[in-house]
Amino acid sequence: MELTPHTRPAAVAGMFYPGSANVLARDLRQMLADRAAPAATPGRRVKAIIAPHAGYVYSGPIAASVYAPLAELAADIRRVVVLGPTHRVAVNGLALPAAGAFATPLGVVAVDQQAVAAIAHLPQVVVSDAAHAAEHSLEVQLPFLQTVLGDFALLPLAVGRASPAEVAEVLECLWGGDETLIVISSDLSHYLPYQTARATDGETARHIVALDAHLDHQQACGATPVNGLLLAARRHGLRAQLIDLRNSGDTAGDRSRVVGYGAFSFSEEAASVR
Fold first, then answer.
1. For the segment 56-81, what is each residue's pLDDT rounded down to a tens digit?
2. 83 with 125: CB under 8 angstroms?
3. What is the pLDDT of residues 82-101, one digit of tens each?
4. According to the 3-state scheme, what is the secondary structure of the chain?
């Protein structure tokens, strides 16, 4: 499995989020300040999150609610594993990029080559620049991470056809300690009427908080990586918390056909109290 050192350029800057670094930084600061969530429960620390991946005008405030508290962990987090579903290019398994770094208007984030080596032996892990080239589900998470964490290395995986167990196996190899954060990128229901979406997404959120790894792709477009995280979270004794649950009818106005967005955190017992 050979990787080349080129950088994947931002593909959806100017579409899903501002293409200007100054405007993007300003918008992120505002969203994070507006949506700052309560600090984690004493004795627990966030190990993983689920965040939505639509355009920031739609899902940015919901994503901000789960990213804002991570600022307290920024000194410890050095690696972020980001998994998101493929929307444009079909792939079997979980696809690494051949690229050695990812760019956004806020700068360049290096791909963690030690993390790549840790999963390269798994048969469900492949390399596909095509799967990453235009994929927004991973890219839209990066400016939030750059703003909240500052310096970190990235392990991006575009998840295609795979089982939850195969995803969980990859996460197990990358689990690490306090230095590693796991981010799952997923929206919830798609194009339902407002009230129907609220009921549907509420039920989905209850399954996620219960670590019930049986979601389908009508409940969450990122059901495959979400289910994999839920399996791993149950194995590691994590506690899930719903941070925010809304839809595009709440943020962008049109309530006839909405997309659901949920923000969830998964906490483990802090090292200081183990």
1. 999 999 999 999 999 999 999 999 99
2. no
3. 999 999 898 999 999 999 99
4. CCCCCCEECCCCECCCECCCHHHHHHHHHHHHHHCCCCCCCCCEEEEEEEECCCCHHHHHHHHHHHHHHHHHHCCCCCEEEEEEECCCCCCECEEECCCCEEEECCEEEEECHHHHHHHCCCCCEEECHHHHHCCHHHHCHHHHHHHHHCCCEEEEEEECECCHHHHHHHHHHHCCCCCEEEEEECCCCEEECHHHHHHHHHHHHHHHHCCCCCCCCCCCCCHHHHHHHHHHHHHCCCEEEEEEEEEHHHHCCCCCCEEEEEEEEEEEECHHHC
Which pLDDT score, from 0 to 100, does residue 69 have? 96
Buried b (16+ CB within 10 A) or exposed e, 162-173: bebebbbbbbee
Q: Are strands 258-269 and 44-51 parallel, antiparallel or unpaired?
A: antiparallel
What CA–CA distances, in Å, run from 151 to 1, 38, 51, 141, 226? 27, 24, 20, 15, 26
Report pLDDT for 177. Answer: 97
**Ranges of residues in the chain whose predicted pLDDT is under 70:** 1-5, 35-43, 270-274
Buried b (16+ CB within 10 A) or exposed e, 180-192: bbbbbbbbbbbeb
Which two three-digit tokens encode residue 64?
Answer: 């901000």
Structure tokens at 223: 């059901």
Q: What is the C-alpha to C-alpha distance for residues 16 and 129, in angstroms, rounded to an integer?
A: 20
Question: Is the whole model's pTM more than 0.85, yes or no?
Answer: yes
Rounded distance between C-alpha atoms, residue 71 and residue 144, angstroms: 11
